[in-house]
Amino acid sequence: MKRKTIVYLIVALILSEFAVIHAEESPLTLDEILDRVEKQYAGEGFSARFDQTSIIKAIDIADTAQGRILVKRPGMMRWEYQTPEKQTIITDGNRLWIYRPELNQVMVGDAPQYLGDGKGASFISNINLIREKFSLIMNKDEGEPDYIINLLPINKIPEVAYIKLRISKNRFEMTGITTYNPYGDETRIELSDFKFDQHLKDSLFRFQAPEGTDIIRIGD
C-alpha cells in the first residue's frame, strides 16, 4: 500500500511539473508582452550599445554607424555616435542638439518637432507612447526567436509609414527598432548590452556649445 502511495505521489509531482512548464510556454498576449516591456523599462534610466543601418532603397545605398545611447525618462536621450564619425544627438525633451565636432558645428531645434509622437525611436524614452500613439499588430511567426510588433501611427507622422519593434522573449528588452518611410527606405537600430536602473544626471541631456562653435538653428 505504501509503495502505491509513493508511486502516486511521484506521478502527481511529474504531472504538476509538466503543467507548470506547459503554462510557461503558453503564448503571451500582446498586452501581456507590453506589460512586461513597460516593467523592464520602468526605472529612471538605462544605457545600451547601438548599431544603426540606414538604407535608401531607390539607389541601393546603406550607411552604418555605431555608438552608445543614454536614456532618462521621460523624454531625455543622448546618442553618442562613435563611428563612422563622432557626433552627439541630445534632447532634454524640449530642445534638440546635434553636435558634430569634426565640423565644429551644432544644430539646435525644437525636440517635439523632430521626435514627437514616437519619431526617431523616441518612444524608448517614454514607453507609454507605444500604446498611445500607435496601432499595434503582432507578427504571428512562431519561428521568430523574438517577439515582432508592427507599430502603425494612429495620426500621420511625416516620413514614418510604420515601425517594426523587436522584443527579446527572455528579458523583454527592445533589441531592434526598424523605421520605414513611405518610399520604402528604412533605418534599423539594433540595441544590446543594456544596463538598467541607472541614475543619470540631467546635465547629460543638455548641451553647451564650446566657444567658437557654429550654431545652426533648425526648424525656425
Give the structure's gist in a few sentences:
The protein is α+β, with helices and mostly antiparallel strands. The protein is 21% helix and 41% strand.
Account of the protein in words:
- The chain is α+β, with helices and mostly antiparallel strands and 220 residues long.
- The chain has one domain: Lipoprotein localisation LolA/LolB/LppX (outer membrane lipoprotein receptor (LolB), chain A, Clam), CATH 2.50.20.
- 21% of the residues lie in helices and 41% in strands.
- The protein contains 4 helices and 12 strands.
- A 12-stranded mixed β-sheet has the order 7-8-9-10-11-1-2-3-4-5-6-12.
- Strand 5 and strand 6 form a beta hairpin.
- The longest helix is centred in the first third of the chain and has 24 residues.
- It starts with a helix and ends with a strand.
Topology at a glance:
Layout: H1 2-25, H2 30-40, E1 45-56, E2 61-72, E3 76-83, E4 87-91, E5 95-100, E6 105-110, H3 111-115, H4 128-133, E7 134-138, E8 146-153, E9 162-168, E10 174-180, E11 186-195, E12 214-217
Parallel strand pairs: 6-12
Antiparallel strand pairs: 1-2, 1-11, 2-3, 3-4, 4-5, 5-6, 7-8, 8-9, 9-10, 10-11
